[in-house]
Structure formats: structure tokens, C-alpha cells
Amino acid sequence: QVQLVESGGGLVQTEGSLRLSCAASGRIPSSAAMGWFRQAPGWEREFVAAISWTGGSTWYADSVKGRFTVSKENAKNMLYLQMNSLKPEDTAVYYCVRKNNLALGPYDRDNTYDYWGRGTQVTVSS
Fold it and tell me: Buried (b) or exposed (e) across 93-125, using 16+ Cβ within 10 A?
């Protein structure tokens, strides 16, 4: 059974930093990709970042490039999102996601991901 459990969310001031973690259970295939989406109240869910499980290629939304870094620890089945220079518009619930085959569908489309965590709240105060 695949489970994704996020942690590390919280309240932070503008320009602050947070590091989100995602613990993944079960075997992760070498073809997989993992990543992060977010959703703010009243807004559609949006892509944040993704990483290939083998090789470590990364992709970012333009809104977070240069501020966020996605990384992984394969041996521990862990995914991370280091968020720096946070802005109030980064406030959202952040979801850890996994797709079993990176080649199937665009990395920034939520409907191409097979598994989702329950999310962790990130609130950036101005």
C-alpha cells in the first residue's frame, strides 16, 4: 500500500524559510517521479516542483524558481521541498505526489499523478 505523509508546514513570516518533508511507503519504481502541488483557498491546485526518482532531474513552476528546491533521499524514500524567501502568495496546502511513470503525461498536470498525500498547511504572514 502506497502512502505519502507530509510534514514541516507551519506559520512563517515573509522572507522566511520552511522545509517540507514527505515520507513515502512502499516500493518506488525507478521510472517514478515525485513532486509537490499546492492549493490556496479559492484557487485551483497548481504545480510547484517535481523530481525524477532516478537521475534527479528537476522541474519548477516559474513562480518558485530560484526560491524553492526539491530534493530526495532514495535510500529513505524521502522527498523534500526547501522553501526560501517565502511570500504571502505561497500560502497554501502543499501536497506530496507520486507518479509511477514519469514518461506518462506532463509533470505539471495533477491528473497524471497516481498518489497524493493529505497535505500540510503553509501560511506566510505579511
Answer: bbbbbbbeebeeeebbeeeebebbbebbebebe
